[in-house]
Specification:
heterodimer, A: alpha/beta, 2 domains, 10-stranded mixed beta sheet, 8 helices, 20 strands, globular, B: alpha/beta, Rossmann fold, 6-stranded mixed beta sheet, 12 strands
């Protein structure tokens, strides 16, 4: 056994011990789930190219932002159920970044072991515990110091079998002075599938580094989803998190956080949610400002149809005087059986000069706006759809054109489906 | 082109229009003059089919078809256009999108050319009317109508909140929409229009063929628009009611 492997075994024992203490601990928010209902799927064979995946899988991935034609991507990671079936860095980017499963990374680097569970507590709840005790893959993306990766890196976590529990743990490290964009698509091959996805993601944005992370969730009506994410941003680092949920889900609960440890660190959360059918959606973002001159922004746009319930949370917490954060959360309800709860929370702890603010609003589309568009020839339904689409269209500064057109594509496709 | 017969309408149960009769033929530009609160805007809104106004009597016929019960968009698609006095901000919908909706195409070159003519190119990617000055909002209305190219265009107080430079641009665009620029005679034009104004300044830039004075929800006087304005400037609107020549 190598020194790294030996060390990992010891670490694993420590993490497992902690995880055991939380194995039955329900999450603070969202409905509890009996995790014993789910089974282990069969392993899948690895593939040499994403183009060799079956059509249904490729389409599901594409709809979640992951393109089997990798021309416009710098690297890819693809996992089906429990098996990482593909990881590749495009030739032009060799030496600039590395992609592998986190199991491989833990075996390879001691420093990865040190980061593991350092941002998200392993004993947070039964879902983090399960991800440690029965981890089923996850990606490790590491962008080397000083590298500016202009094409997005993509990662897909796909569930093909029904009644499966996918317990992934991802680790993303953007080293000093590096810049990257990552698109993660989480999706199912079959819309009728049942199952649960637990995704632990720990992000480390080093000094002067930046990451734009875009996650598109396309689950199914009988799927439970429990991501647990946390980001540590160092001095002058920037973290932008875009989250898009446009399809129904049984339940999703997540409350990703960004801890702005370094001076001048910045974070922005952009959340776009279209809740349909009886989806239970409890999604938030938390910015914790501890470095000087740190700033954070959290923008959420939610629309609720049918019997959907959306809880849009947003916490801004500052411990330093030289800090600024703003939260903007707006929602539209399209059904008298739907619910939206906007729950902003601001806290300044020992920081009388911190500037924290929020705007939260839930209101219908103004009739005069619909009528205005009708005078230009759109039907009432078309006008409502155009305004709703515009409402969800968050202006994301610095969004690369390719990524913008992709997000537009996802929103347009979901919009057409809704019509 | 447009025929309004004995039209009465109310808003929230309050009567506003009272037995309005008005016929506008192809090629004709009509100006509707009247004091604030006389019901001029209401008449345009009722012609456009805004649902908060209830038609309590009478009919509206456009191009030979009864449109009294048609929806707003059915009227728009039939060829009726409206430039609002105070257009709403529609967040998330850009000026470019509005032009594309109006023209029914995504012809980038055409959109750019139209926007350039109205000095609105910088506004194309901005949400429609968001933070627009008075002049910009009016020019954006003209931009949309030019793209929509309606057979019958209505303009609600196109000069309000607009400085002289902007008024010339707005007036020029109106003349183009109504085909008065090239074709001075009504018989040559295919378009028709109805301009609501209470100051009459816009008529310096667009020549109207007929004038109507609108008071208390009804047309109380008809005539040459310039003569009517001269009369109003001298004696005020109340004189029209008192004189009552037209009704005789």
């Amino acid at each position: 056994m190598s020194k790294v492997t030996d060390r990992l075994a010891k670490k694993r024992a420590e993490w497992a011990k902690l995880a055991e203490t939380a194995a039955a601990k329900p999450a603070k928010f969202g409905p509890d789930i009996d995790l014993t209902e789910y089974v282990d799927p069969a392993d899948m064979a690895e593939v040499d190219t994403l183009k060799s995946l079956d059509k249904q899988m490729r389409e599901a991935a594409l709809y979640a932002g992951v393109d089997a034609d990798e021309t416009f991507r710098s690297g890819s990671y693809f996992q089906v159920d429990h098996t990482p079936i593909y990881r590749k860095v495009q030739e032009a980017y060799n030496g600039q970044l590395e992609i592998m499963s986190t199991s491989e990374a833990l075996e390879k680097y001691e420093w990865v072991q040190d980061l593991w569970w350092s941002a998200v507590p392993v004993d947070q709840d039964k879902f983090t515990a399960k991800a440690e005790l029965e981890q089923t893959g996850g990606y490790f993306i590491h962008v080397f110091a000083g590298q500016k990766i202009e094409k997005p890196i993509q990662a897909c976590l796909l569930l093909a079998e029904s009644n499966v529990s996918q317990n992934v743990h991802n680790l993303i490290v953007i080293d000093e002075g590096a810049e990257a964009q990552i698109i993660t698509g989480c999706t199912v091959k079959n819309d009728a599938a049942q199952g649960i996805h637990m995704g632990i993601s720990e992000f480390f944005i080093r000094k002067n580094a930046s990451l734009m992370f875009t996650m598109i969730h396309n689950w199914a009506e009988s799927f439970h989803v429990r991501p647990r994410s946390a980001t540590i941003v160092e001095e002058n680092g920037t973290f932008i998190n875009n989250y898009i949920l446009m399809k129904p889900v049984k339940s999703i609960q997540m409350f990703p956080s960004a801890v702005l440890n370094g001076d001048n660190a910045r974070a922005r959360f952009n959340t776009i949610i279209s809740g349909k059918k009886d989806s239970y959606i409890d999604v938030g973002s938390k910015a914790i400002l501890t470095g000087k001159n740190t700033s954070a922004e959290s923008i959420a746009r939610t629309v609720a149809y049918d019997e959907c319930a959306i809880y849009a949370r947003g916490d801004l917490i500052s411990y330093v005087n030289e800090s600024k954060a703003h939260l903007d959360c707006r929602g539209i309800l399209f059904s008298d059986k739907a619910q939206i709860w906007a729950i902003p929370a601001l806290a300044a702890d020992g920081a009388p000069q911190a500037e924290l603010s929020h705007e939260a609003a839930i209101s219908p589309i103004a009739e005069e706006e619909v009528e205005y568009l009708q005078t230009r020839g759109l039907t009432k339904d078309e006008a409502m759809s155009t305004i709703t689409r515009g409402f969800l269209n968050i202006d994301i500064p610095g969004l690369p054109p390719a990524l913008k057109s992709y997000i537009d594509h996802v929103l347009d496709a979901a919009d057409k489906e809704a019509l | 082109m447009l025929e309004i017969k004995n039209l009465s309408a109310s808003i929230a149960g309050k009567p506003i229009l009272d037995k309005v009769n008005l016929t506008i033929n192809k090629g004709e530009i009509h100006a509707l003059l009247g004091p604030n609160g006389s019901g001029k805007t209401t008449l345009l809104m009722v012609i456009m089919g805004m649902p908060r106004y209830e038609v309590t009597a009478g009919t509206i016929t456009f191009q030979g078809k009864d449109i009294t019960k048609a929806t707003i968009d059915e009227r728009a698609r039939a060829g009726i256009g409206l430039a609002f006095q105070r257009p709403p901000v529609v967040r998330g919908v850009t000026t470019r999108q509005m032009v594309e909706i109006c023209s029914g195409s995504k012809d980038e070159a055409q959109t750019k050319a139209l926007a350039t003519r109205l000095s609105l190119e910088p506004m194309l990617e901005r949400d429609i009317n968001q933070g627009f000055s008075g002049g910009e909002a009016k020019r954006a209305e003209m931009l949309q109508l030019l793209a929509q190219n309606p057979d019958f265009a209505m303009f609600d107080e196109p000069e309000s909140g607009v400085d002289l430079d902007n008024m010339a641009i707005v007036g020029g665009a109106m003349a183009e929409i109504l085909e008065t620029k090239e074709m001075r005679r009504t018989g040559d034009r295919n378009k028709a229009g109805l301009i609501v104004t209470h100051t009459g300044h816009i008529l310096e830039f667009v020549n109207a063929d007929f004038g109507h004075i609108f008071m208390h929800g009804s047309i109380v006087c008809n005539g040459n628009p310039r003569d009517l304005f001269a009369e109003i400037r001298e004696n005020g609107y109340e004189e029209c009611v008192r004189c009552n020549k037209c009704q005789k």
